[in-house]
Amino acid sequence: MTWHRRQSALALDWQLLTTQQVWVLLAVAHGRVRRLTEFGELAVHELDGRSVSWTVTTLAVRRLVVIDPLRPGPPRITRRGRQLLGHAGLVPAEPSLN
What we know:
By secondary structure, the chain is of the alpha+beta class. The chain has one domain (about 5-85). The chain is about 45% helix and about 15% strand. The protein is built from four helices and five strands. The strands form two sheets. It has a three-stranded antiparallel β-sheet with strand order 1-2-3, with helices on one face. The radius of gyration is 14 Å and the shape is globular. This is MarR family transcriptional regulator.
């Protein structure tokens, strides 16, 4: 895929995100989403006292975050999710090594 096609694909993905999906994706990027473990196998994700499980699931289906079933913990942002936020100018495209 050429650079131009990749940029246009990121722009299209950005346009299809809802405001809540952007809010949750930014929170995942900054490590603010928690996984509540008191519900056992049900993966309940919480952000600022709100349940965001369905939003995290839709972001995982779109390959913007990863939910690791073997290592319980918060969802992690993927390279694609970081590039999408970097395309929008919300976070650096690659994490700094400082």
